[in-house]
Amino acid sequence: MKITPLNDENGYRCLTVEPNWSAIAADYDDVIAPYLRVQIPGFRSGKVPRSVIEQRLQRLILDDFSNRAAQRLGREALRESGAEAMGPIEIGDIECAKGKPFRFTARFRPMPELELPDLGSITVRDGGPDPRDQISHRLLELVSFDVPAEAVQAELGDDGSAAGSSSPGWKEAQDRVRLMLILKKIARQEGIEVDEADVERRIEEKAVEFGANPEALKAEFKKGGGRQRLKDMLLAEYTLDFLIEKSVSLSVFTSHSKGD
Asked: Can you tell me the distance from the alpha carbon of 54 to that of 81, in angstroms, rounded to the nearest whole number?
């Protein structure tokens, strides 16, 4: 996979990514599989030749395929180049034609430089507030760095333009962004990951909880980056639970040592 850095744009980094077709052939096969069941006049159901499907539904197939492949390869390109995105990777300038080189640009805001504390020094007080809240508060105390205003505005959503940088709402959003970035850094350091099966399972659990149709809810999460936000939320949960377990195990070890 050829990765070419482009000029930075207003705090964003840009890469041109060019994989060979062999690197994305499996993605194409996965994407086209559901289309092979489409009914075409003059053919029996499920018996439509693949070449006919590809010819008649070419644009739909390539649109689905290019977006799927670009997201996956964008993440791989960042890992190969040693970069880490602070938020979602923006994919653009996609060039896609079957059997030809695939090309696109990945635009992202890089993670800020931050130094993690000794994770073993973070403790949870029995009988205190929720352990996740305790650890979150302590991390915000220990790790300080500047958060880009654009990231805070994105966290505030439609309220971003109305909230001033001195408002309580702005400070709360800033802390949420800062905490998420700290937890992402810890997750990467400790090898904590969230896969697509985790996301699917959580959506299905929410569907049961709210009495919603699972497939309809999954479709909703695909809109406006909802699926990625859910993935980030799960990563934060897993990382906080890891820190809680680490803290508890240290406390138990310490108490046993004193007893001896």
From this structure: 34
User: Distance between alpha carbon 118 and the CA centroid of its chain, in Å?
Assistant: 26
**CATH code assigned at 40:** 3.30.70.1050
> Tell me: the pLDDT tens digits for 25-34?
888 888 888 8
Dihedral angle over CA of 98, 21, 40, 223, nearest 10: -100
The order of strands in the sheet holding 13-18 is: 2-5, 13-18, 103-108, 90-95
pLDDT digit string, tens, across residues 161-179? 555 667 778 889 999 999 9
Category of 10 on φ-ψ map: left (φ > 0), alpha (ψ -120 to 50) or beta: left
The pTM assigned to this predicted structure is 0.69
DSSP letter for each residue of the chain:
-EEEE---BTTBEEEEEE--GGGTHHHHHHHHHHHTT---TTS-TT---HHHHHHHTHHHHHHHHHHHHHHHHHHHHHHHTT--BSSPPEEEEEE--TTS--EEEEEEPBPPP-----GGG----TTSS-HHHHHHHHHHHH------HHHHHHHHGGGTTTS-TTSHHHHHHHHHHHHHHHHHHHHHHHT----HHHHHHHHHHHHHHHT--HHHHHHHHTGGGHHHHHHHHHHHHHHHHHHHHHHHHHHHHHHHHHH-
Domain-terminating residue out of 108, 139, 172: 108
- The answer to the question of residue 114 being in a domain is no
Tokens standing for residue 126: 């029995």
- CATH number, domain of 224, equals 1.10.3120.10
